[in-house]
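Take a specimen:
=====
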Amino acid sequence: MKRLFIAVDIELSDEFRALSQKLKHDLRNDDILWVNSHLHHLTLRFLGETPETKIEPLVKIISTLTSSTQAFELQLDKIGVFGSKYKPEVLWYGFSEFHLFKALFENLEKELIKLEFQSSYGNFVPHITVGRIKKIDRKKSFWEIIESSQPSFYQAIQVKNLKLIQSKLTNDGPIYKTLFDFILN
């Protein structure tokens, strides 16, 4: 079994890196596990523990999908938080418009279900995880910082390839290994 996901590599722009540093500084009194920049990625689909026997058919599905999909661009342009107002859990950067990425996800999802992967439930919210929130002492201050930090700029993200990535969880954080790289048409 391999713990797998399908993603797009991301390198944040200087503006988003500066925003990350500002957030780290402004939220320094809160308990947040910040994601190392070399681990940033945009997940198309988390697959989880995958039997070795499914990897070859999975590769064929992704290869077929990417060969019939044209490369496109997304605009990274906002900060978001998963969890509730009272218990925020994940801080992320995201996109206001992502219909092409969602169409890619939906086409992939149909094929994954045929391959007997569990359906991905919930809202589809493409994002780049910036931090995992462990504890916030002053929630009002936290939300004021998030609101005042919304970017007035965007970063163009080129979606021109997908990677099938293996994730190994360790005490020092995850280790990612690219198993296959698929180029969009």
Remarks:
- The two ends are 30 Å apart (CA to CA).
- The longest strand covers residues 72-83.
- The domain at 2-183 is CATH 3.90.1140.10 (Cyclic Phosphodiesterase; Chain: A,).
- The mean pLDDT is 95.
